[in-house]
Write a sequence for this structure.
């Protein structure tokens, strides 16, 4: 038989509102007990029918009546009636009533009832203490759990619709659940202020105000939004200038109805981004065709955490570069900066040449949250200082000789100058200087071959310009000529020319010219041309004709060696003088005629017939003049007897050296 209906509230005293169900023994398999729980009625507000209709609407206090058919072998000791807030809402909990049953209370059965306050609230929001509902309006369920000692739990539930006419808010600027990834949408974004738009829906009692608040003490005090045009969209701004950059999870908006009752708060996950620092890697002096500039950037750790966390809530997406306030161009930032890569990125400095002179470059970087990192850099746009060689490269230097170079400098910008300069050959410095001295220097080439001349100039802005130019050094050559110092007219004379390069190496293959200059003349004439053999030697044979000088000239070989000329070799030529069948015996007092023949001859040339004196000297005893046939007749009178030695002497001229015939002996009786 059924026991009388007993009020749950009468058994447990005043209402208890808890966020979680009180701890009870663990549930066992419900099939292990024969207890049965049955809903009898749910009465709420003006509902007098007391029916239990799935999905029925409840508001305010809902009185739940239910029956328990107990199992005599497993008598129940408690029953709990509850309604729970939505698990995905903010600040909701559970409203419950517990009935402790004494032995025999439900044998064989009992009818119980409890009152649940579906409009119950609890403080929420820290110091703000907004009284928010524990149970949201909307679809819900009422649950009954009956506990027995086995242990076992027998449960029953029925669906209801809660309608306490609470206002509802939504934030259209929040991303949908399907928009989230590991790195991208995070809710709302604030820099110096958080701009809000909130749609407030009337639950039935109107909307009196919408409030923003945070449960974190670092955020500003609660503030009200406004709906100026009455369209149900409430807006306002929260000062976040003093809030530390990072991702914040404790911000909410809530609507209040005309009775001052709060609806369920909506969480506003908010990223505070006060921007970031940007550091361009650029010199103070740049050229007018400056390439891309690398930009390093840095966020507070709460916004960009590199690998392995990779929580990059903010990252650069584009860079605008301006020159003196004039836009030069915008460069998108590549995706490689995403997911924790903070190694920097590049921005183009326009697409054309920059004007020369002093300017300010502004780098304005925007991130994916609309925050900016800006920095201004003073720069001077300069041109290279270009040299113009005025000496040193007009002829190829020769090893062993001193090479001199000189240059002037100029700049297209009109003001850059070579503040200092260094002149080097093959990396070895040969001269340095500073403004106003112009680049110049000298160098003694010791090694033939190709060398590199480097002129480095540094402008007053520290802008370095390096100019290189190849310099070929030729080997020097030395030419020596050997040959006879005295020759006889018409005879053969041999000359040998030897040509060597720097270091004593034979100049094999050198072209050698043998030249002759007559005595008293100034011009040289080519007599023969030859080629030096592998030992650097060239040989020549000529016919003696007149006095003069000889020399050998070794020609230059392109890009190999320089020309050289030997010292001159003086060569004298004597005439051929002979006596035709001279008389070699005669008597004293007689005159003997001797015919002298000269080659070469010039009509009118004077000859002398000489007798050798006892002291070895010669004395002239007769003169003669060459005729047109090249002969001259001299008449000698022997005044005493004896043996005499005679000769014919031809005095020297510019063309021929002094010439003598062979001697002959005359016996005079």
């Amino acid at each position: 038989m059924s026991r009388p209906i007993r009020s749950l509230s009468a058994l447990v005293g005043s209402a208890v509102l808890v966020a979680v169900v009180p701890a009870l023994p663990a549930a066992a398999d419900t099939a292990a007990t024969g207890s049965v729980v049955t809903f009898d009625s749910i009465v709420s507000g003006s509902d007098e029918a007391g029916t239990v209709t799935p999905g029925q609407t409840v508001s305010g206090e809902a009185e739940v009546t239910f029956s328990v058919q107990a199992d005599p072998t497993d008598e129940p000791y408690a029953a709990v009636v509850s309604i729970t807030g939505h698990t995905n809402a903010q600040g909701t909990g559970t409203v419950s009533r517990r009935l402790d049953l004494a032995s025999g209370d439900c044998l064989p059965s009992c009818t119980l009832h409890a009152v649940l306050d579906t409009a119950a609230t609890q403080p929420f929001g820290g110091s703000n203490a907004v009284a928010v509902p524990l149970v949201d309006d909307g679809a819900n369920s009422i649950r009954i759990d009956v506990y027995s000692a086995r242990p076992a739990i027998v449960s029953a539930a029925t669906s209801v619709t809660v309608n306490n006419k609470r206002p509802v808010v939504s934030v259209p600027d929040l991303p949908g659940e399907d928009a989230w990834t590991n790195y991208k949408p995070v809710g709302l974004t604030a820099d110096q202020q958080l701009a809000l738009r909130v749609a407030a829906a009337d639950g039935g009692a109107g909307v009196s105000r919408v409030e923003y608040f945070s449960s974190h003490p670092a955020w500003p005090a609660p503030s009200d939004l406004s709906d100026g045009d009455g369209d149900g969209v409430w807006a306002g701004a929260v000062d976040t200038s003093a809030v530390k950059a990072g991702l914040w999870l404790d911000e909410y908006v809530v609507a209040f109805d005309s009775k001052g009752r709060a609806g369920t708060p909506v969480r506003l996950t908010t990223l505070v981004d006060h921007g970031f620092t940007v550091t361009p890697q650029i010199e103070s002096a740049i050229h007018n065709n400056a390439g891309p500039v690398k930009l390093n950037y840095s966020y507070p750790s709460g916004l960009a955490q590199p690998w392995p966390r990779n929580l990059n809530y903010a990252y650069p997406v584009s860079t605008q570069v301006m020159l003196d306030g004039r836009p030069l161009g915008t460069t998108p930032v590549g995706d490689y900066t995403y997911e924790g890569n903070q190694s920097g990125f590049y921005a183009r400095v326009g697409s054309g040449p920059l004007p020369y002179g002093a300017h300010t470059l502004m780098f304005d970087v925007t991130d994916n949250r609309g925050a900016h990192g800006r920095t201004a850099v003073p720069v001077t746009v300069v041109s290279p200082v270009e040299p113009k060689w005025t000496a040193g490269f007009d002829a190829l230097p020769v090893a062993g000789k001193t090479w001199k170079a000189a240059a002037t400098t100029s700049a297209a910008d009109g003001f850059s100058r070579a503040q200092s300069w260094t002149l080097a050959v093959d990396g070895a410095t040969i001269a340095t200087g500073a403004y106003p001295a112009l680049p110049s220097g000298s160098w003694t080439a010791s090694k033939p071959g190709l060398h590199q001349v480097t002129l480095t100039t540094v402008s007053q802005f520290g802008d370095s310009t390096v100019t290189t130019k190849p310099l070929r050094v030729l080997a020097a050559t030395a030419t020596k000529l050997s040959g006879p110092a005295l020759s006889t007219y018409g005879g053969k004379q041999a000359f040998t020319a030897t040509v060597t390069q720097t270091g004593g190496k034979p100049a094999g293959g050198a072209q050698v010219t043998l030249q002759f200059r007559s005595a008293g003349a100034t011009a040289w004439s080519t007599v023969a041309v030859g080629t030096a053999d592998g030992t650097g030697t060239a040989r020549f044979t000529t016919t003696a004709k007149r006095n003069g000088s000889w020399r050998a000239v070794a020609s230059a070989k392109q890009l190999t060696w320089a020309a050289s000329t030997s010292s001159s070799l003086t060569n004298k030529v004597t005439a051929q003088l002979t006596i035709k069948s001279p008389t070699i015996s005669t008597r004293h007092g007689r005159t003997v005629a001797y015919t002298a023949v000269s080659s070469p001859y010039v009509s009118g040339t004077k000859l002398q017939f000489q007798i050798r004196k006892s002291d070895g000297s010669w004395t002239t005893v007769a003169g003669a003049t060459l005729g047109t046939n090249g002969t001259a007749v001299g008449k000698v009178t022997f005044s005493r007897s004896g043996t005499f030695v005679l000769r014919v002497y031809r005095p020297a001229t510019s063309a021929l050296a002094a010439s003598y015939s062979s001697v002959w002996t005359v016996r005079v009786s």
